[in-house]
Design goal:
Blueprint (H helix, E strand, L loop, with lengths): L9 E4 L2 E2 L4 E14 L10 E15 L7 H5 L6 E7 L8 E15 L7 E8 L4 E4 L2
Antiparallel strand pairs: 1-2, 1-5, 3-4, 4-7, 5-6, 6-7, 6-8
Length: about 130
Amino acid sequence: MAFVHAKDTFISLAANNLSTFTNTSELEQESDEHDNTCYGADDYVMAGGLLKGAFTMGGVHDDTASGPKAIIEPLIGTVVTLIRRTEGTGSGLPQESVSVLVKKYVETNAVADFIKWSCDLTKTGAITRSTQA
């Protein structure tokens, strides 16, 4: 097993590279659960269901026309493609692509820090995993 530093992570939303503005991201995946327990059982019997997931990202605000606010805010309420390359961009490296619902954009203004932004996305459909050509 090789450890991989996160500094080379690439993130694109609706074909817009947000990597230069992003310093944190998280992919969460989970399953629905269904209770199939019947009379006489001493323990629950559970079954998995549909898969679901969420993606969050955030970073340092940039107020230019190519900054995260200008890119993300118009996408709220729409389904777009998210591309994530956890080991950076390059031939043979892994890539994930998934359709996501752009759910929320947030800006945080702390008195002693730069303006920060974050974005919540909901996975819609399966994640396609591939190797970059």
